[in-house]
Specification:
Blueprint: H1 3-52, E1 67-71, E2 74-79, H2 85-96, E3 100-103, E4 106-110, E5 117-121
Antiparallel strand pairs: 1-2, 2-5, 3-4, 4-5
């Protein structure tokens, strides 16, 4: 075997190894990307499941003293029963929900004074 043939064999071997490594590396990268995407999808699914399983509110509206009131949008009920633990729990729940929430067909909201709650039947 002469020097020229040896150079040719080395070149072909280098190209073959480089091509093989290139294909194998890209296959590994694609496998990694697919695994990461599957992990992200699973994580998003778990987050969605956790969001839907919200803890039940710890307050009972039937144990809160409500009085009838009339507003610009019609009749509603209001309470300022600040010494009642159920009312305090309602205020905390409203604070966690930005001052408004709907529960069992009722819309609850906090007035600007922060210690009065209104509610109105929805639908």
């Amino acid at each position: 075997m002469n020097e020229e043939n040896l150079k040719l064999i080395r070149q072909v071997a280098k190209e073959t190894v480089a091509e093989t490594l290139d294909i194998e590396v890209w296959d590994a990268i694609f496998e990694l990307v697919n695994a990461v995407e599957a992990g992200i999808a699973s994580f998003k699914h778990r987050l969605g499941v956790q969001k839907e399983v919200a803890p039940k509110a710890s307050w009972d509206p039937d144990k809160i003293k409500w009085e009838q009131a009339e507003g610009r949008n019609g009749p509603y009920e209001r309470s300022g029963d600040v010494s009642n633990p159920e009312f305090k729990a309602l205020l905390r729940d409203l604070a966690r929900h930005g001052g408004r929430l709907t529960r069992n067909g009722w819309l609850y909201w906090t007035f600007k004074n922060g210690s009065t709650v209104g509610r109105k039947k929805r639908g």
